[in-house]
Design goal:
This protein is of the alpha+beta class. 31% of the residues lie in helices and 35% in strands.
Length: 333
């Protein structure tokens, strides 16, 4: 762990300029702050892009045309070295909401003319003073829910605009104690080892080793949020284990921590098959993937809060269910 102040300042400046840019200025801002071989990962239907111009064209310019008067409202901002490559690469992570006026349709989602929130988590790898690689996860299904659409069956957890850390201390703009970050990373690694050692069947006593009793699991739209270990097992972990099968953990691309916060993403994290009735899917032997982000807050020697992003649209699309396409067909009738 070290001092990542220059990387943090770079990303904050990039955000300020990007959020203020309009039209073709967006292309210029992205190009100015990113590497020539920039690699960008986004959720379905954006997927991977390999230039600043394509990132602007595919994601940012359409999004900014639809969501006007953007405010970026971060809840967690941190930086660190990547545990997945023996601490060789440097990353900056931001999580929160982008709030704007939903004035024009986006991805076929009808505009409301009202405030709307897009949950996001973004991982940026910094190399030679520029952003070389980005993974931007956002909760598109949550936007659909905000305008009154119900694209998936009734979710098992709660639905709401998700808050940031209970402690309101997730914006790590300055330097922090490296020992605290190392402690958080070790706890996250222990939690992962406990979770994967028995094919995702984690008994209560194993969860209790790394999670507080009153843990909060802020899951993505379609699954929802749960509170306490007991309700987490009932409302997320139980349905996950019961309705999915042949789960394989593929590892992560980045896993890092700073102070009391940490997180990871994979591409994909998990591969599996559906055993039936998960998010309304029938049983199938057709393989599918989950691309996932997890952001954590450590309280003492256990994890207290967890924010999760899953590319559910991609997961369903691999099973032949095009949620955005189906929505457009329904709205046309």
């Amino acid at each position: 762990m070290g001092d990542f102040q220059g990387n943090k300042d770079l990303v904050r400046k990039y955000y300020d300029e990007l959020d203020a840019a309009q039209g073709d200025e967006i292309d210029e801002v992205i190009a100015r702050h990113t590497a020539d071989d920039y690699h960008w990962r986004g959720m379905h239907p954006f997927h991977e892009q390999f230039s600043a111009a394509d990132v602007a064209k595919v994601f940012w310019k359409p999004f900014r045309r639809s969501f006007t008067s953007i405010q970026r409202r971060p809840d967690v901002f941190m930086a660190g070295l990547n545990d997945c490559d023996d601490f060789q690469s440097e990353w900056v992570v931001c999580m929160g909401h982008m709030m704007g006026l939903f004035d024009h349709d986006w991805l076929g989602i009808p505009s409301s003319g009202k405030m709307a929130f897009l949950r996001f988590a973004e991982f940026n790898r910094i190399e030679h003073g520029r952003i070389a690689e980005t993974a931007l996860f956002c909760d598109i299904i949550h936007v659909m829910q905000q305008v009154g659409l119900t694209p998936l069956p009734l979710q098992t957890g709660a639905h709401f605009i998700q808050p940031g850390p209970k402690t309101h201390d997730g914006l790590l703009f300055g330097a922090t104690d490296p020992e605290q970050g190392a402690k958080t990373l070790a706890l996250i690694n222990q939690m992962i080892a406990d979770l994967t050692c028995d094919y995702w069947d984690s008994p209560e006593e194993r969860l209790g080793r790394t999670w507080h009793d009153d843990m909060i699991w802020f899951g993505p739209a379609g699954i929802g949020a749960t509170y306490t270990r007991e309700r987490y097992r009932k409302q997320h972990q139980g349905p996950f284990r019961e309705h999915l099968k042949d789960i394989v953990f593929n590892g992560h691309i980045c896993r890092m921590a700073e102070d009391h916060f940490g997180g990871f993403f994979g591409w994909p994290n998990l591969s599996m098959k559906t055993a039936g009735n998960y998010l309304g899917l029938p049983a199938s032997d057709h393989p599918t993937d989950m691309r996932v982000v997890d952001i954590y807050r450590r309280d003492g020697d256990k994890l207290a809060e967890n924010w999760i992003f899953i590319d559910i649209l991609h997961f369903l699309n691999l099973q032949g269910l095009d949620v955005l396409g189906r929505m457009k067909e329904i709205l046309r009738t």
